[in-house]
């Protein structure tokens, strides 16, 4: 797939000087996408790089999450630092049919929601979101992230059942131990039913900061490695589950020469077949 994408979108425009590395070819693809194909992955990647530039070297820090299930929707991008904001991405190729229901779902677990768009939807979204607490962000040329309107807090529809369903078992355990000092003493079959009852008895004032704290611990990264990858891979590698071979495998792949038509196997360079699931 990697080779097919490069053949279709990049090779005809490359200058043909020398033997390109995979790093160079990915940078060429980044240039093509910036000019012709700013899809959801591209916008999410731009958001991640924007927040990284703002918070990476501050004590405040931050954590990004993607494809987070919230009720009947999946949040495209969530950024947590002092507060958590859900970002729903609407590219120029999207429609707005599901936006109202998506926003309603997001407010069941988070107090702040913003919509991110390009120029195509900016005017219509500005009108549609007027008078609501939903924020609006536009991705301009050069990947400049501009906040058109800051989101306002909305905690009227927070739903502890929805928040419970979003958490993993170890995260639920963390919350319950913090509040009650122990976990339900029951079989694994009955655990979730009893845990849910205890979880839903916690006041939102106590629960919400804990909910944010366990979500913020989900994504870890090696800062130096993450900052040295090609910009187009920032999001993919940030959210990729990491193991002991992760950094070396990616570095080997990026420094290797690109060989057209070669069906490489990234356990030799392990992540290559997944390198660009962005179309």
Characterize the structure shown.
The protein is of the alpha/beta class. The chain contains twelve helices and eight strands. Helix content is 44%, strand content 13%. The chain has a six-stranded mixed beta sheet. The protein has a two-stranded antiparallel ribbon with strand order 2-3. A hairpin with a 3-residue loop joins strand 4 and strand 5. Helix 7 crosses helix 9 (204-216). The longest helix is centred in the N-terminal third of the chain and has 16 residues, at 40-55. The chain is globular, with a radius of gyration of 21 Å.
What is the ordering of alpha helices and beta strands? HHHEEEEEHEHEEHHHHHHH
Number of strands: 8
C-alpha-based Rg, rounded: 21 Å
Identify the strand order in the major beta sheet: 1-4-5-6-7-8
Fraction in beta strands: 5-15%
The end-to-end span amounts to: 10 Å
Residue stretches low in confidence (pLDDT < 50, at least 5 long) are 264-279
Give the count of helical stretches.
12
């Amino acid at each position: 797939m990697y080779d097919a994408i490069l053949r279709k979108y990049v090779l005809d425009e490359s200058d043909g000087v020398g033997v390109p590395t995979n790093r160079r070819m990915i940078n060429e693809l980044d240039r093509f996408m910036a000019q012709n194909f700013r899809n959801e992955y591209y916008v999410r990647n731009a958001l991640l790089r924007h927040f990284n530039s703002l918070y990476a070297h501050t004590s405040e820090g931050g954590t990004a999450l993607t494809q987070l299930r919230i009720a009947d929707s999946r949040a495209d991008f969530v950024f947590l630092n002092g507060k958590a904001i859900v970002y729903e991405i609407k590219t120029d190729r999207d429609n707005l049919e599901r936006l109202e229901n998506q926003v309603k779902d997001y407010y069941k677990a988070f107090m702040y929601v913003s919509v991110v768009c390009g120029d195509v939807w900016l005017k219509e979204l500005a009108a549609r979101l007027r008078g609501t607490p939903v924020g609006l962000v536009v991705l301009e040329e050069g990947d400049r992230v501009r906040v058109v309107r800051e989101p306002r807090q909305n905690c009227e529809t927070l739903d502890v059942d929805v928040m419970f369903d979003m958490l993993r078992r170890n995260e639920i355990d963390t919350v319950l131990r913090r509040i009650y000092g122990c976990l339900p003493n029951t079989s694994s079959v009955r655990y979730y039913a009893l845990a849910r009852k205890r979880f839903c008895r916690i006041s939102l004032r106590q629960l919400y900061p804990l909910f944010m704290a366990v979500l913020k611990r989900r994504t870890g990264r090696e800062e130096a490695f993450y900052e040295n990858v090609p910009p187009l891979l920032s999001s993919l590698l940030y959210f990729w589950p990491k193991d002991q071979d992760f950094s070396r495998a990616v570095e080997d792949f990026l420094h290797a020469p690109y060989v057209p038509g070669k069906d490489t196997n990234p356990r030799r360079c392990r992540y290559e077949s997944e390198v660009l699931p962005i179309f």
